[in-house]
Amino acid sequence: MSKNIIVAAVLATTGALPAYADFPERPLQIVVPYSAGGSTDLGMRVVADAFERQFDGIQVVVRNQPGGGGAIGTSAAIHARPDGYTLGAGAQGPIAIKPHIGGADYVIDDVEFIGLFARSLQVMVACSDAPFSDYASFVAYAAETAPQIGNSGAGGANHISAEAFARAAHINVESIPFGGSSEARTACIGGHIDAMVASPAEARAAAEAGQMTPIFVMEEERIAMFPDTPTAVEMGVDFTWSSYKGLVAPRGLPDDVLEWLRDAVKQVAEDPEFIATMTEMGEFVTYEDGPAFEARVRADGEMAHAVLEELGLLGMNN
User: Fold this and answer.
1) DSSP 152
2) Mean of the pLDDT values across residues 170-175?
């Protein structure tokens, strides 16, 4: 019996994935457009481990290719040969925002969306000594005086989210860019800015220490970590925002390879061990198939374009 027939038979008997005899025949590579050790890198390494655990004989290599705000590695992934062996980390900034800022040689239409498996939620927090402490007082203050809201850099995801919320809520904000999220957090704790967009994990730690106060969560529904903190939606503002982690590839993959990869991501996202590990890392594990993932990215891209145009930042890096 040939090797291909044996592999196909094993996959067929497990019922895990369609039995495509010709894929994969060699290691898969996931290009992470950031340096090693960050949340995207760590998340993709958990994905790689889950792939290897779920599918016998498959090897997945994670390659870091940072630079250009994520554009360099993302470009390498989506301009690779469309055979399914080179994949990319589908991060929000490089795909939904970067093409509008400039410095990227690709657009959303160049991307094949495999599937989304995790999201990083966002919480607006009041900083130390802020003149507001809850949603109502924040909005009332911002209707009269623009609060200073820190972000990790002009044109970044949390800059866009704060400005997009302000547009949706018809309030005023003054965005204050810093050289990274840690600098913004330090300024927030020190009372040098009024508010910032934080991850649930850092918001909880700072809130428990009395250094920040959660104002609202950028989700459709309240989250378990902050059961007493409302969402903007329930307060009457149709606004949600989160960054995310998924897998993308170049356009033009063979249909059977694309189906294999999409089925594989779905199986990994539903694996209990994968869910437990990602949850411990502070990620909100959720699965979206390729079309749903693409729809999310396109909606974010449209929102980012509108905000950047209003701020005069379209093409600022060209």
Assistant:
1) S
2) 95
**Tally of CB atoms within 10 A around 201:** 15
Three-class secondary structure of residue 115 per DSSP: strand
- Taking the CA atoms of 16, 17, 20 and 22 in sequence, report the sign of the dihedral they define: negative
- Preceding amide of 24 cis, omega within 30: yes
pLDDT at 291 over 90: yes
Domains delineated in the chain: 3-120+242-311 (3.40.190.150), 123-217 (3.40.190.10)
Q: Transcribe 302-317 into DSSP letters.
A: HHHHHHHHHHT-TTTT
- Joined together, the tokens standing for residue 29 give 């590579």
196: three-class secondary structure by DSSP: strand
* pLDDT class of 182 with cuts at 50, 70, 90: confident
CA angle (99 as vertex; 97, 102 as ends), nearest 5: 110
